[in-house]
Amino acid sequence: MAELDLHKVLAVSAHPDDIDFGSAATIAALTDADVEVSLCMLTTGDAGGFDPGRNAEETSRLRQAEQEAAADVVGISEVLVLDERDGFVQPTHKLVGDLVRVMRQTRPQAVLSFHPERAWDRLQKAHPDHLATGEAVVRAAYPYVENPFAYPELEAAGLPAFKIQHLLLMGSPAERVNLRVDVTGYQDRKLAALGRHFSQHRDAERMREFVTDQLQTTHGAGGYAEEFHHVIVNDPATISGF
């Protein structure tokens, strides 16, 4: 990741724990390298968990607190929350505009989020909220965040257009993966972050074994790795619209 020369990253998730499953070790490595990472959750995950005696409002409060605790483990500097409904996220113009606002507020070089394409190799990677989040993020990153005539109310509020350089997309179809980040030494931080999501694990030990196996399989050479589809949105050779 050093070759990307990142100073600020915005992670965007659909629910609490998404980022921790997909990229917590990478984020821990980034923050240890003095990269500032912010997290924007689209929902508070009120439709998740296994306790039938807990209502949606209680679940929402609990899961937000769990994510804030997990964020502390990996060094995320702030957790922002939008008002989308868990289970019903759609890439609407309102959501895209909300993401443009967050992107212009945080002004990252890279946005880390979900891939908008369904991965058929493991359907659980392709929750509909994840796909919709990925689509909304990609639309916001190009062209809207860099178009001063899009969402003029943001420009008027002192949030000018700027260009995002990179997208790092989790949960992509296998054929799209083009970046594997060696996170050896950060696997325990990832597991610790996941462990903060107490309400989501019926079998915490099985979860830990599954995640560890995924990290090792992705690395393939005795270490641990996380994988992404890395998309260059803007670089010195980019011509807008081409």
Structural notes for this entry:
The structure is a single chain. The longest helix is centred in the N-terminal third of the chain and has 19 residues, at 56-74. Strand 1, helix 1 and strand 2 (36-41) form a beta-alpha-beta unit. It contains 7 helices and 7 strands; from the N terminus they run E-H-E-H-E-H-E-H-H-E-E-H-H-E. Helix 1 crosses helix 6 and helix 6 (187-195) runs antiparallel to helix 7. The protein has one domain: LmbE-like (Rossmann fold, 3-Layer(aba) Sandwich), CATH 3.40.50. With 242 residues, the protein is of the alpha/beta class. The model has no long low-confidence stretch (mean pLDDT 94). A 7-stranded mixed beta sheet has the order 3-2-1-4-5-7-6, with helices on both faces. 38% of the residues lie in helices and 16% in strands. This is PIG-L family deacetylase. Keywords: Zinc. GO terms for molecular function: hydrolase activity, acting on carbon-nitrogen (but not peptide) bonds, in linear amides.
